[in-house]
Fold each of these.
Amino acid sequence: MSARVVRILQYLALAGFLVFLGFPLVWLISTAFKSSAEINSLVVNLFPLQPTLDNFAAALERQGLLRAAGNSLIVAVATTIIVTVISIPGAYVMARYQGKLRTIGVGYILISQIFPVILVVIPLFFILRGIGLVDSLIGLIAVYTVYTLPFSLWMLQGYVAAIPYDIEEAAAIDGATKLRTLQRVVFPLLMPGLAATAMFSFVSAYNEFFFALVLLQSPDSYTLPIALSTFVGGEGKVAVGPLAAGALLSSIPSIVFFTLLQKRLATGLLSGAVKG
């Protein structure tokens, strides 16, 4: 098989993968702009014949949706900041030092990924109720931090391990202290990893549903996933148009956050800095 045929097959596979990933988003956008009559019609159209903004108006008029969006942003941003700040020193220790502390850290990560969420949510509920953090955004932030931290540590320590230790030794020979080496050498090279860790933490906290469903009880504390679930009626009747519009609006913060961090996500930034 010639190299040209292989390249064509690669592009076809990539195009198919992009269609597979992009079609649900295209369908969501299309449904958000369709009228109720067109949504309930037996004729399926990929694009709306008569676009309308009625679904967006209905979604925004629904009580508590904007408040839930604010709650989700507060929880997601706070979780991202806390997880990132804790992960930096923890990941560095895991990547650079061998000993009991690293063994404990790795064991913590592995054990935390073993248990299904359903097994820990009930005792977690009683613990939070005992300290008065049920139906509280602070309690939810604490839960998301503990839930997201293990994988964030594991992901970030891989980025730290990819930074050659020779660079730190060279900085030490030049007279730089350990703290200055971390600030001026390691931290700039770690920016792609920090961006990836922050993105993972934000998306995990912003989209999480199960913990929020169990721990949040009053509508004033609802996050967006819980608020969007109210578009499903008691008899299973779904307000498809407003739900699609609400889901589309709720995805905007994640898209904006990813756009702000996308330059830092390029792993070529790391390799280029090391080669220089």
Amino acid sequence: MFGKRGNEGFGKSGSVAPPPAAPAPAVARSAAPEILAEPMRDPVTQRQQISSPPPLAPQSTARKRPARTELYYDTKSQVFSALIDTIDLSQLAKLDAESAREEIRDIVNDIITIKNFAMSISEQEELLEDICNDVLGYGPLEPLLARDDISDIMVNGAGQTFIEVAGKTIESDIRFRDNSQLLSICQRIVSQVGRRVDESSPICDARLPDGSRVNVIAPPLAIDGPALTIRKFKKDKLTLDQLVKFGAITPEGAVLLQIIGRVRCNIVISGGTGSGKTTLLNCLTNYIDREERVITCEDTAELQLQQPHVVRLETRPPNIEGEGEITMRDLVKNCLRMRPERIIVGEVRGPEVFDLLQAMNTGHDGSMGTIHANTPRECLSRMESMIAMGGYSLPAKTVREIISGSIDVIIQAARLRDGSRRITQITEVMGMEGDVIITQDLMRYEIDGEDANGRLIGKHMATGIMKPHFWDRARYYNEEKRLSAALDAMEKTKD
């Protein structure tokens, strides 16, 4: 159906194969589909069974692969080239994914038979899956994307890929055929969200269909080949209860966060790269009333809100002529005209912080955002700096008054040196005293030491504040009893 030429077009082996060898390929053609049909119904799972490293011992798989890596990749290159010469991609594009995989399987099986490659069933299945991924998916990235225990994928050129598992970075045995294949996969990813990456536009942010964040930087800026970074999100969305289970927060602290989200406090989540800010923001949005109209503004859409009344906005980079750019500030300004009840900014990194603060001050209580900062106090300083970046010539005291009058709570997230993620501070902004913004901690995380395995030991400590600054807001929403009970429980836990 799809061959541009017959099987004899695959190579010399197809035209000069001696007649006595004919029965062997016939057995391969009849047996292979019967043996391989079941795994191909779930190709991701089958690929993991064959080649993905087990989570607890990735080194063992890495030692086994190099013995056959060069031969395997040489065989794959020959088969792939023959497939491209044979298949009609325009016709293949008209099929659904499963039918396209079956067509590719049939042709690849014929190529392997005609070229007389000596391969076991498992090796042939691995090759089939790799080639299907190259043609229809994201190539060597597919098995890594299928693993839910991986939080980051970092590709440093065609020959080196690192992954983060359980907070630790390890080298994967995955590699690409060459930098051209890697760049082609990067272009396939970014084109799905209407963006491009090439020499004229070598930096690009994008996302995968599941919401995972993607960053690509290509040559000539990346000297050793395209650098691809993927921040993966779990298929099952995390909740505050699961964060409690992982030790990121105590049960009493989780109740406190629920109340903060429920009573429409203006929240800023502060933390370093990879500290779990977006995950925590997703968790807090679960406690927004379903009747509220929520508008999200993001550079790359990754928030996963569960409410029915959500409008998602995303920035746009300039086109090839340098025109048409839509910045975060443009989005925040525009969403004020869309009758929002809450505004959520995925990441505040520039002058748009001023517009967000203005929104918080003008009836959009319960708005949220994230900022890169190491402490709540540094978070406040960064807001001042970002407002200055917008060219506003306001006195420092006026800027601080705007900040203190807008932000109610700062939640500090951190990734510790053992790879664990913790909510290290819940801090409320009290107001101004002179020229200084006054804050107080409701809860802190204190590190006591580490165990024999190098895991940090610590505990969340209450600070003894029994009536927070947002107490009246909690009473307005009939949450004062639950708030009091949570603070009491935190104090008893400290004792």
